[in-house]
Amino acid sequence: MLPRRRFLAAGLGGAVGLAFPDIAPAATAIVMPLAAADRRFSVLYEGDKIGTHTVLYSLETGETRVTTDVSLLVKVAFFTLFKFTHRSSETWRDGRLVSLRSVTVEHGDTLLVEGRATPQGFRVESKGGPFIASAATLTSNSLWTPAVLEQETVVDAQHGGVIGISARKFAEEPIAVAGRTIPATRYAFITPYLAGSIWYDRASLWVRGEFEIDGSKIQYQLGA
Question: What domain of life (predicted)?
């Protein structure tokens, strides 16, 4: 049975102690992907598909909208052990986050997070109250860019506030993706909710994920 609130395939939450040497900040430029770079993953738990995670991009007059949609369901016979949905919309301009709105539903509990760029920084509002993050912040849904793993903190798109990340970058290696072998760079990372690895291809596109929670592996398989 997946632990309630700890399983969030793209969510990174809480403060975290450093487990790896820090990657130098801003080592990777944030380049907004085009619509052709849409990500559609199948999420597998112990070899069975339990849901999907999609990241879609659209261009609007000098801005890029990034929509993240996660839908997970674990059932045994007629019993639901775990149900989770998360949908967020982010607007980016010139590599900076200008707005965020997300709705998360887990076991009937609904969480709403909203944020917008202000002269003081990126203002986040959630059930926990308002918070001002750095104007250059990324969010926990920004796994579409390896730059997210080069930050010390990001905005938690599920709960609001900010959270810590510790990550380590490894050398390029060949991996199997959608029936072919490609070169990709792996990042190992740890947060209070997740620990695991994420791979990016040479175009800095997210192509694979493997996470471990309570000794069980969660795998992300990219669709063809």
Answer: Bacteria
